[in-house]
Amino acid sequence: MSDASTRGVADEGRLTFTLDGREVEARKGDMLIAAAERAGTFIPRFCYHPRMASVGVCRMCLVEVSGPRGPSLQPSCYIEVQDGMTVDTTSEQVKKAQDGVLEFLLINHPLDCPVCDKGGECPLQDQTLAYGPGETRFVEEKRHFAKPIPISELVLLDRERCIQCSCCTRFADEIAGEAQIDFIDRGEQLEIGIFPGLPFTSYFSGNTVQICPVGALTATPYRFAARPWDLDQVESTCTTCAVGCRVAVQSSANRVTRLLGIDTDPVNQGWLCDKGRFAYEAVNSEDRLVEPLVRKAGELVSVSWHEALEAVADRLRQAADRAGAESSAVRGSPTKAPTPGRSSRRACSAPTRSTRSSATGSRRRWWPRSHEPPSTRWLPRTRSSCSRATSAKSCQCSSSAFAPR
């Protein structure tokens, strides 16, 4: 193959565009926000997540894109890179738009960073400092809600902190495949809601806490437990099943404080099931077994691993001598357990777009009985489509945007 043809194959699917006055390369189909980040230019964002579909609702990622009619502000998370495109992320128009977005977000957002679990690792904090106006023209009193609201046994909601980025609702719908939370009400009363009388029972609910860019969703076990700058962190592998999701283990005062998912594409893509995320509390339990025990004279005593394994082998040999080799069996945890008509991945593994259909599978024995997911599928329904009433005033669903299908 000639050099020219080789170069053509290598360049296929590659684009060149101008970013802040310099030419950079991108892959065909890349969103502008991702291509700019790979080129070393960070564009602020709240609603964008590389593992979910772009929606462009927060408008924090507005950049100036030159077109046939001149430059215009466009959301970089919602437009694909085009060959020859010219993009400016530092113009005066972009800075003014960023100032305005942050000023609006802080109209009702409480300034309770010292007591917020997200304080110190909050994108809203960081971007307000880096891109915000530094002051506000609004002097009206902020809105107030009762707090926190337990939307499940593991997740708490502080409604006044929510910036309506929709990361949590999109994750529940797109990735976990369990649309059990959604927006209700309108305007400044817009908030995250659950179905009346039904908790947020998704087996992957803890991921919404991790991807929330503010402290609107917090984890019950971690609430007020530590500050991020006091935590020591090491990367490890989740041990609650055989999938082997990559995790970041964070500890404080020699106690495991929380586990976070790490984006590893072939395994868990950054997601963790709630068992893998919250089962770390067993590590800190005083009842945890930390050494092998063997029963001697009717009592369990500590022994070495060598002695414990010898005892197990001896018992297996005795069982085989009494009833034959087929009388004994060893049960392991497989990495895959095929389910007819569904994904072959274990239901206890992290969800992906291709595996979300098995999200309500085999972990029910671990979950508390009171926390079982509802058997009926619930989906949002607008008031105008409710068939139980002729007007919004008489509609039984008027206090919520949710109704059974």
Polypeptide structure, described:
With 405 residues, this protein is of the alpha+beta class. Among the domains are: 10-105, Ubiquitin-like (UB roll), CATH 3.10.20.740; 113-282, Alpha-Beta Plaits (2-Layer Sandwich). The chain has helices spanning 3-11, 32-38, 92-105, 123-131, 167-175, 206-211, 274-278, 305-323, and strands at residues 14-19, 22-27, 62-67, 70-75, 86-88, 149-150, 155-157, 181-184, 191-194, 217-219, 232-237, 246-252, 255-261, 293-296, 299-302, 378-380, 402-404. The chain has a 5-stranded mixed sheet with strand order 2-1-5-3-4, sandwiched between helices. α3 packs across α4 (123-131). The longest helix has 19 residues, at 305-323. The model is unreliable at 4-10, 336-348 and 353-405 (pLDDT under 50).
Protein topology:
Layout (H helix, E strand, L loop, with lengths): L2 H9 L2 E6 L2 E6 L4 H7 L23 E6 L2 E6 L10 E3 L3 H14 L17 H9 L17 E2 L4 E3 L9 H9 L5 E4 L6 E4 L11 H6 L5 E3 L12 E6 L8 E7 L2 E7 L12 H5 L14 E4 L2 E4 L2 H19 L54 E3 L21 E3 L1
Parallel strand pairs: 1-5
Antiparallel strand pairs: 1-2, 3-4, 3-5, 6-7, 7-10, 8-9, 11-12, 12-13, 14-15, 16-17
Features:
405 residues; alpha+beta; Ubiquitin-like (UB roll); Alpha-Beta Plaits; five-stranded mixed β-sheet; three-stranded antiparallel β-sheet; 8 helices; 17 strands; disordered C terminus
Terminal CA distance reads: 60 Å
Q: Please identify the top-level CATH class of one domain.
A: Alpha Beta
Share of residues in strands: 15-25%
Mean pLDDT: 81
* SSE ordering: HEEHEEEHHEEHEEHEEEEHEEHEE
